[in-house]
Amino acid sequence: MAVTLRDVAARAGVSPVVVSRVLHNKAQAIRVSDATAERVRQAAEELGYRCNVAARNFRAQQTMTIGILHGSGFARPKLNEGSRYFACLMDGLIEGAFRNGYSVTLCPQLLSDAPESAMGDGRFDGLVWYSSVSSDANLGALARCSVPLVLIHSRTAQFGSRHSAVLCDNEQGIGGAVEHLVELGHRRLAFAMDVSPLNLESLDRLAVFRRHCALHGIETGDRDVLEVGWDRREVDSYFRGGLRHTALIAHNDGLAAEFLNRAKDFDIDVPGQFSIVGFDSTSFCDELRPTLTSISQPLREMGECAIDFLVRTIQGELPEPVEQIFPCGLDIRESTAIVGDRT
Amino acid sequence: MAVTLRDVAARAGVSPVVVSRVLHNKAQAIRVSDATAERVRQAAEELGYRCNVAARNFRAQQTMTIGILHGSGFARPKLNEGSRYFACLMDGLIEGAFRNGYSVTLCPQLLSDAPESAMGDGRFDGLVWYSSVSSDANLGALARCSVPLVLIHSRTAQFGSRHSAVLCDNEQGIGGAVEHLVELGHRRLAFAMDVSPLNLESLDRLAVFRRHCALHGIETGDRDVLEVGWDRREVDSYFRGGLRHTALIAHNDGLAAEFLNRAKDFDIDVPGQFSIVGFDSTSFCDELRPTLTSISQPLREMGECAIDFLVRTIQGELPEPVEQIFPCGLDIRESTAIVGDRT
DNA sequence: TTGGCTGACTATACCGATATACTAACCGCT
DNA sequence: AGCGGTTAGTATATCGGTATAGTCAGCCAA
Fold first, then answer.
1. What is the pLDDT of residues B2-35, one digit of tens each?
2. Residues B86-113: tens digit of each pLDDT
3. Distance between CA atoms of B173 and B169, rounded to whole angstroms?
4. Which of A80, B32, B319, B324 pairs with B89 at a CA distance of 20 to 30 A?
5. CB atoms closer than 10 angstroms to residue B207
6. pTM of the model
7. Nucleotide closest in space to A25 (CA vs C1')
8. Candidate from A52, A91, A112 with C-beta closest to B75
């Protein structure tokens, strides 16, 4: 059996409370004489005492654990960009959590009834929700959630939800990319997204795309929006149908990479005949040839910010939900060029 | 405050123990009459009772949580393959853990004293160690660990360690790749690895590479082993120095990708002049052009196996440490071809 | 001498679920 | 009636810290 406070107390010849004060409770340690404190510390050292964190947290009615509700597995087949995106975000989440003394548990929503059970079973002090949110089931879960929750990439204020949110500035990101392409002379633009009608972020990006095209006098219809399924078959058929556009913005890097590679297979010159812009600007962009121009978002910082909001909410310092929108950048690499500029 | 067992008990007019039996303890539920059980269930339903998992686990002296000790952040700059590799592994770990009713917490070793504290503070029922292990500090930590621990990709039996391990068959993987290259007529082979003297896995793969080269009468010296640092500068200088080999095996896909892309930048034809084999065969390989031939290992299964070993150890079903070696495959793609075969 | 005060420590209860031991009622059987 | 056995419950202690209240000696001032 493990060494407990009581064991240390017995060896030091004091009561458990004193040991607790000396070893854990900095604030109350002043109420113990130096000599006793030293005896306690020595006894603890000799016995190799380690605080049972589970017991402490239970008493304090907290878990010091944050749950990350994410959509699915990390490494989705053919959706590798999910892992890249998630990796950057996770780095921020973990870093932020550890800095605040919290640890992080992953809750894949697809596994059993993870979200429902995570939200009220006392396992978490708070939750970060990174997933699409517009299904009724999801919204219901969000509404019933009994612990603080912060959303990443999902604004649910419109549904009457009372959770804080961390977002990126699609307006600036997509808008900047459209501007960049227009400056290069492009007038026939397409927008590519995964088929997932419930992903509000995609829909928002699409809306911004359309608006900015309109601003530059470019009309966009249904044929300019390319919805691509799991198996990416649609990318093939798009190119097979003949090149209808001179440039494309994809709503993530993985999708952009698919277009980039398939274009090459169809002997379409990128960027000579066809410019491509991705979204996320993960380091993956540099591993493609041509390297991929991509809209960047500060994923790591966003993750840290989400944790920050969450911790402050848990500690009662954030009575009202807040929203933080992070700026996007545009990392111009080789996959965008002046229209018709065969290199 | 949350609804507790006592609240339900009061409403149903029974003692808390009965409620516990009805709602949680399947085995003892038979000791309760149907009518009472129904009353209890209804009271729980009406009050919206949710079991406090933390309390239950504390009582049972368990946490139902597994800690994953991993080397560093997910998204290491310029080491993106780390995230891909880790993503596949994590999928297996999470899946396996959830299937067994455990949740998974990430413990980046670089953050504070994570490994030391994780090993004895009662937060975890068991640990999975995925990291290089040959530093003294690491070995010391492993030896002192007070909960069951399973190693991935590290065999520490040689250090007198008493932990189970999950490995991949480097012999078969590297050996098969060498064979493949020799069959294609290659006689001048190189092996590329990250600079990390403590990574036993790398050293093992290198040793296997050398042995299999020797088997085919190919001599290998220091100049045939390319050690590449964080910033990958060495890849550049390798090509700048003129092509000394006709084929290269890299100890992971990310490194292979770097060689593949830099070769292109130096106008070296892959695979015409230079064949490249990666390791891991993540879906990333299909996103490169040419697509990357790579040694595959069943990362997901390995993750699940590690959890399986761990859970069985925790439950006392695995008194002795075991070792499972998973077979490697070779996914032949476009980056390897007959020597000098300009396409 | 008494009361008040401080410093250093102890005693007790508690967080919420559950293992364990115990009780009370009832049945059947000799 | 008395005994053993079963059924359906209750009472209590416990996991390991820690909040809270309480104790008690020593000292000083009135």
1. 899 999 999 999 999 999 999 998 887 778 899 9
2. 888 888 999 999 999 999 998 887 655 6
3. 6
4. B319
5. 13
6. 0.91
7. D18
8. A91
